[in-house]
């Protein structure tokens, strides 16, 4: 009998605990007092931990390898959060350099994910489109992270909404998952021809 459902349940439970801790940290205001580069180091540490776990834990790597490509892509629909960046910029709460380019790019990437998930029956037959989307999404999230770090270092108050709920979930939960999932997709695309899983 396959151990995958049990293993998958374990990793999903870990993810839910991580999410709960992230929500709790934001609700209690623990992140609001952090000053650069602490939030950036936290994000990098969480991302590196995910990638290290995937590289070193065979059970986790096997589970990731069994996920359908559209399940991984579907995570990126959450990037419609970019619309909230635009709202906060319009209210004067986020700087243009972060909110507008990053917000519109996130909306574009999320829209692409939605198209791939809903309108492409078999992603393994559209590997070039998936690769182009993944490259664009990866470059976007790198731009967002680097821009946020640059602006926070220059003026910590300008990026303070990212340290309060609901946006505090970005550095503590969603962005590490997004970055790691892009790396996972690159890995999966490299081996999909041998074992197609759409």
Describe what this molecule looks like in 3D.
This protein is globular. The chain has helices at residues 4-27, 38-56, 58-66, 69-74, 82-90, 96-119, 127-154, 169-191. It has one domain (4-191). The model is unreliable at 1-5 (pLDDT under 50). Helix 2 (38-56) crosses helix 3 and helix 6 (96-119) runs antiparallel to helix 7. The protein is mostly helical and 198 residues long. The chain has 8 helices and no strands. 72% of the residues lie in helices and 0% in strands.
Task: Draw up the topology in text.
Blueprint: H1 4-27, H2 38-56, H3 58-66, H4 69-74, H5 82-90, H6 96-119, H7 127-154, H8 169-191
Helix pairs in contact: 2-3, 2-8, 5-6, 6-7, 7-8
Order of helices and strands: HHHHHHHH
Enumerate how many helices there are, as a single number.
8
Query: Which range does the strand content fall in?
Result: under 5%
Number of discrete domains: 1
The gross shape turns out to be: globular
- Tally of DSSP β-strands: 0
Unreliable stretches covering 5 or more consecutive residues: 1-5
Mean pLDDT reading: 93
Largest sheet: none
Radius of gyration: 17 Å
Helical content class: over 70%
Distance between the termini: 23 Å
Main features:
single chain; 198 residues; mainly alpha; disordered N terminus
């Amino acid at each position: 009998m396959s151990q995958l459902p049990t293993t998958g349940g374990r990793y999903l439970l870990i993810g839910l605990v991580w999410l709960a801790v992230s929500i709790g940290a934001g609700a209690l205001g623990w992140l609001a007092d952090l000053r650069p580069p602490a939030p950036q180091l936290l994000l990098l540490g969480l991302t590196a931990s995910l990638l290290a776990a995937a590289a070193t834990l065979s059970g986790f790597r096997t589970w990731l390898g069994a996920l359908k490509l559209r399940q991984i892509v579907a995570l990126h629909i959450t990037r419609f959060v970019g619309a909230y960046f635009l709202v906060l910029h319009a209210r004067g709460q986020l700087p243009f350099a972060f909110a507008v380019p990053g917000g519109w790019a996130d909306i574009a990437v999320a829209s692409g994910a939605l198209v791939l998930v809903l309108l492409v029956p078999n992603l393994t037959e559209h590997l070039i489109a998936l690769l182009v989307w993944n490259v664009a999404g990866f470059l976007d999230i790198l731009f967002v992270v680097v821009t946020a770090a640059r602006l926070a270092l220059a003026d910590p108050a300008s990026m303070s909404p990212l340290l309060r709920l609901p946006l505090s979930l970005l550095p503590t939960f969603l962005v590490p998952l997004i970055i790691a999932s892009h790396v996972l997709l690159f890995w999966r695309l490299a081996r999909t021809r041998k074992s197609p899983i759409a």
